[in-house]
Amino acid sequence: MTRKPYIAGNWKMHKTVAEARAYVADLLPRIEDVEGVDVGLCVPFTALAATVEACGDSGVIVAAQNMHQAESGAFTGEVSAPMLTELGVRAVVLGHSERRQYFGETDRALAEKVPAALEAGLQPILCVGETEEEREAGDTQRKLRHQVQEGLEKVPTERLGEVVIAYEPIWAIGTGRVATPEQAQEAIAFVRALVGGRSEEAARQVRVLYGGSVKPENAAEILAQEDVDGALVGGASLDAAGFAEIVKAATGS
């Protein structure tokens, strides 16, 4: 099975509404001739509607950076899936390491959020990854096994292939350090095998992305690995020209 490459840019807490519109206007002409790659922009809540409007019928997927698992309720400061889909948002990042580290995101909450996103028609991008200490202690696979199995626990087997998983070694996020292509391949192949423990068909379908200091200079080598289906790009996605180069790298051009 040939999995379609997926390049998603995570803006984190960057870009106002005006800046988002300007970015999209800069990006779209740069990628309009690129085929065979899904492109996503993971945008702050305040800029979601403007980004959806600016992307129009370009095919660019607009994603939120978080959501609550409940459809509504007394959860001050939270946003639900129906609020996102109403805007035309098509995907949502769940469990990013910064959400886990700074805001107490738990695997148990993600076990509710991932199926809630699917049920609402949103594509979940589930983030997993180990710390530097865990890698040095030889605990990478144990950590990934826990995060993947917990995060997918309540997803129906027949829908597992619809989930996107982003492997992000925490020690490589925003540090300038990057996993070697071999490290990325090894970890992502292990993630795929974990999905295969539930369903071999889903393991062939599920797209597993690499995230962690991906740049135009290193993207092609990482994306060439057999099991790497794309990238969740952080800082390098803030520049439209550089992000477009990473998108093109996914095509092998």
Verbal overview:
The chain has a single domain (about 5-250), classed as TIM Barrel, CATH 3.20.20.70. α1 (about 15-30) runs parallel beside α2 (about 50-55), α1 (about 15-30) packs parallel to α11 (about 240-250) and α10 runs parallel beside α11. The chain has an eight-stranded parallel sheet. Helices cover about 45% and strands about 15% of the residues. The chain is of the alpha/beta class and about 250 residues long.
Radius of gyration: 17 Å
One letter per element, helices H and strands E, the order comes to EHEHEHEHHEHHEHHEHEH
Can you summarize the main beta sheet? 8 strands, parallel
Report low-confidence residues grouped into runs of 5 or more.
Answer: none
Shape: globular
Concise overview:
The protein is α/β, with parallel strands linked by helices. It contains eleven helices and eight strands.
What are the key terms here?
alpha/beta, eight-stranded parallel sheet, 253 residues, TIM Barrel
SSE inventory with pairings:
Elements: E1 6-10, H1 17-31, E2 38-42, H2 48-55, E3 61-64, H3 81-87, E4 91-94, H4 97-103, H5 107-120, E5 123-128, H6 132-136, H7 140-152, E6 164-167, H8 181-196, H9 200-205, E7 207-210, H10 216-223, E8 230-233, H11 240-249
Parallel strand pairs: 1-2, 1-8, 2-3, 3-4, 4-5, 5-6, 6-7
Helix pairs in contact: 1-2, 1-11, 5-7, 7-8, 10-11
